């Protein structure tokens, strides 16, 4: 059979392709032998939000009821096919199953849109253009249908539980097939036509009401939306770990689910059916679910609305206190969805942070899939173009963040361990690898929530600002021209250690590195004794922090250490261990240090009012040393560096960056590789700028590649 040939479409005018699936009576009746999957592709002009209201209204009146299918692509293999006007298009098994499920549950022909089928994947120009229309597609759809896969016993149990607890249920189960009977098929098809027409008419009226509201208050009109800058705002992605107070099932509803016992087992089932489903790990589904008016989960022949699923999962996790692993996958997406419909747009950088664990088949889609949701203004740096390499796309979006913030902080705070080594990506070292989920990243020194940095390594005036030079989209996109001050070089590094070790073990390893530096502590026996005492004190904190049975612990009283005012080395070491902070928003104070060295974890733990403080201190030690290596510089300074750091690396302060960074000079070249951000004690608050003004340190150009 000949292959289908896509006809050109005019993406600039909002034109897309839509599929009409033919009705199959045998499939609807659950028969074993069914016909081929067939349909027709037609063109449709979307009521894109940039059109004048009159033109949008005219186009809305012509948009038919259609379902936008949201699904996981699955394997690259395409064992199934669909016949479009008698021509074949190979499709994946998951897409085939999703289309068949919609076809089976329909009464009559059904219109569907699905990205891989209706966008010519071999045409990079069309793919790039259609990306900017996908938001409009899912927003214009009568329903976004999320295909989770085939049904199961656990699936039926989960859907029934949600139904009984919320009273929201549409399709109770898969249709049970009947024996072959030609007469019943003909009769069913005859009856289905008027019933289907009536159902589509009712659906069209309901969707028309939504369209009228959208015409008056368009959620998709970016010019009427506000960008969410406040990290504490209602829909902010920096405070998604909160409950859902709006849903509280009645006593009558709770009585209907008493057979589920304490709900722990059903919570595990809900996690597996929904949150752990591959759908929740994909990038494109964020936009697909966020902009839709109506979202429905489909599992086999069952359907359930988004709000019902979200309400029940949040009720179990937050109200009942039953942990549901990975709940942020749904709470974060719900915040994005709520923001969109409240005409609030999240900054692209916030969206990328929130979706960092999500997967995209094409790495460029880690950016492109979020463009329709962002509050940032579209510009040349963000324009989708699949002809560009991954490195080009990622460096452009990084330049966008730099230009937007007038700062180099956006190149910091991302995972550097495990960066892609694929040479075809052409990824500059100063550009983050946005495919990494940040699970192996140290706690960022720079703020990731748009607050001001607690550090000021490059000062507080013009030195704290960075301006991109020249044409930001020129062919030399791999280079980033910076200016800064070379401070020192790495002389000694602690071993990286293991991923699972405690902060007590890390501290002991860091101290071993310091004590072994004989040229650093030569003849300072009293300091070594103080450091050893500190090691014992911190081991008690560590034992408390990681113990599953804190009440049964027995602690030794912390050994007395020398006063900090007489011991600069001890002071510097503790500051380095804690990154000179007690949290991401608070710098370490003298009072904090005195408290840490005098506190007895056992006594504090027994006093509930102070136990929160103890936990905060332990968390600060955990975050300060996690995935970092202790550094001693050539000039005797202490610091901590990311795991990829090496002896001989340069430590610099770049103008426009709030923290010092580690660079590596390329051999025989005046180019520098970016290794990562670092903490350098004594150089976190414009000290390098002061020394440069005095002539002790010199400014120089540092070309990053």
Structure description:
This protein is an alpha/beta fold. Among the domains are: 1-141, no CATH class; 410-495 and 643-704, no CATH class; 507-545 and 564-626, no CATH class. Helices cover 38% and strands 15% of the residues. It is built from 23 helices and 21 strands. The chain has a nine-stranded mixed β-sheet with strand order 5-4-2-1-6-3-7-9-10, sandwiched between helices. Strands 12-17-18-19-21 form a five-stranded mixed beta barrel. The protein is globular.
Features:
alpha/beta; 21 strands; 9-stranded mixed β-sheet; 705 residues; globular
- Our Rg estimate from Cα atoms comes to 30 Å
Class inferred from helices and paired strands? alpha/beta
The shape is globular
Fraction in beta strands: 15-25%
How many β strands by DSSP? 21
Share of helix, binned = 25-40%
Q: Average pLDDT, to the nearest integer?
A: 86
Q: Can you count the helices?
A: 23
Largest sheet: 9 strands, mixed
Low-confidence stretches: 560-566
Strand order of the largest sheet: 5-4-2-1-6-3-7-9-10
Kindly report how far apart the N and C termini lie: 51 Å
Domain Heterokaryon incompatibility: 66-171
InterPro entries: HET, HetReg/Transcr_Mod
Organism: Hyaloscypha variabilis (strain UAMH 11265 / GT02V1 / F) (Meliniomyces variabilis)
Protein name: Heterokaryon incompatibility domain-containing protein
């Amino acid at each position: 059979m000949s292959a289908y040939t896509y006809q050109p479409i005019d993406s600039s005018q909002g034109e897309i392709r839509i599929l009409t699936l033919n009705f199959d009576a045998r499939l609807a009746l659950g028969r074993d032998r069914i016909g081929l999957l067939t349909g027709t592709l037609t063109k449709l002009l979307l009521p894109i939000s940039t059109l004048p209201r009159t033109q949008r209204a005219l186009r809305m009146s012509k948009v038919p009821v259609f379902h936008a299918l949201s699904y996981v692509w699955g394997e690259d293999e395409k064992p199934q096919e669909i016949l479009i006007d008698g021509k074949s298009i190979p499709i994946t098994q998951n897409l085939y199953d999703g289309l068949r499920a919609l076809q089976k549950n329909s009464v009559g022909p059904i219109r569907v849109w699905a990205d891989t089928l209706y966008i010519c994947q071999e045409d990079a120009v069309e793919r790039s253009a259609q990306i900017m229309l996908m938001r409009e597609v899912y927003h214009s759809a009568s329903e976004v249908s999320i295909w989770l896969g085939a049904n199961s016993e656990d699936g039926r149990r989960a859907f029934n539980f949600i139904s009984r607890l919320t009273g929201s249920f549409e399709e109770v189960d898969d249709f049970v097939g009947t024996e072959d009977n030609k007469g019943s098929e003909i009769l069913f098809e005859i009856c289905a036509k008027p019933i289907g027409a009536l159902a589509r008419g009712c659906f069209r009226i309901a969707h028309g009401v939504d369209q009228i509201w959208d015409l008056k208050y368009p959620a998709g009109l970016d010019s009427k939306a506000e960008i969410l800058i406040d990290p504490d705002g209602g829909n902010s992605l920096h405070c998604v770990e909160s409950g859902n107070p709006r849903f509280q099932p009645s006593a009558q509803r709770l009585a209907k689910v008493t057979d589920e016992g304490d709900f722990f087992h059903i919570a595990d089932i809900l996690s597996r059916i929904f949150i752990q489903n591959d759908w929740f790990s994909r990038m494109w589904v964020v936009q697909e679910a966020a902009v839709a008016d109506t979202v429905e989960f489909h599992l086999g022949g069952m359907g359930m609305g988004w709000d019902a699923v979200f309400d029940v999962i949040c009720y179990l996790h937050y109200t009942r206190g039953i942990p549901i692993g990975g709940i942020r996958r749904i709470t974060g997406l719900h915040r994005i969805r709520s923001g969109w419909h409240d005409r609030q747009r999240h900054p692209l950088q916030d969206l990328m942070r929130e979706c960092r664990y999500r997967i995209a088949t094409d790495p460029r889609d880690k950016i492109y899939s979020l463009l329709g949701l962002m509050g940032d203004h579209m510009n040349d740096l963000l324009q989708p173009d699949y002809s560009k390499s991954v490195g080009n796309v990622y460096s452009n979006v990084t330049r966008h963040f730099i230009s937007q913030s007038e700062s180099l902080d956006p190149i910091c705070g991302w995972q550097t361990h495990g960066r892609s080594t694929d040479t075809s990506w052409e990824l500059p070292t100063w550009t983050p690898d946005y495919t990494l989920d940040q699970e192996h990243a140290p706690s960022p020194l720079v703020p990731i929530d748009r607050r001001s940095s607690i550090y000021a390594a490059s000062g507080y005036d013009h030195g704290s600002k960075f301006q991109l030079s020249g044409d930001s989209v020129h062919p030399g996109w791999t280079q980033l021209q910076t200016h800064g001050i070379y401070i020192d070089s790495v002389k000694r590094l602690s071993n990286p250690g293991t991923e699972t070790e405690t902060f007590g073990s890390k501290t002991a390893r860091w101290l071993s590195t310091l004590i072994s530096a004989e040229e650093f502590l030569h003849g300072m026996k009293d300091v070594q004794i103080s450091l050893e005492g500190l090691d014992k004190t911190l081991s008690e904190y560590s034992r408390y922090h990681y113990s599953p049975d804190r009440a049964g612990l027995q602690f030794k009283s912390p050994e007395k250490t020398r006063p900090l005012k007489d011991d600069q080395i001890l002071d510097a070491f503790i500051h380095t261990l804690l990154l000179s902070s007690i949290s991401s928003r608070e710098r370490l104070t003298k009072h904090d240090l005195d408290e840490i060295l005098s506190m007895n974890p056992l006594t504090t733990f027994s006093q509930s009012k102070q136990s929160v403080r103890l936990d905060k201190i332990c968390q600060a030690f955990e975050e300060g040393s996690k995935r970092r290596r202790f550094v001693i510089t050539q000039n005797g300074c202490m610091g901590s560096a990311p795991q990829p750091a090496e002896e001989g690396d340069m430590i610099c302060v770049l103008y426009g960056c709030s923290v010092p960074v580690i660079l590596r000079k390329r051999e025989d070249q005046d180019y520098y590789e970016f290794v990562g951000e670092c903490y350098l004690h004594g150089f976190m608050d414009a000290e390098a700028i002061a020394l440069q003004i005095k002539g002790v340190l010199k400014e120089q150009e540092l070309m990053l590649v």
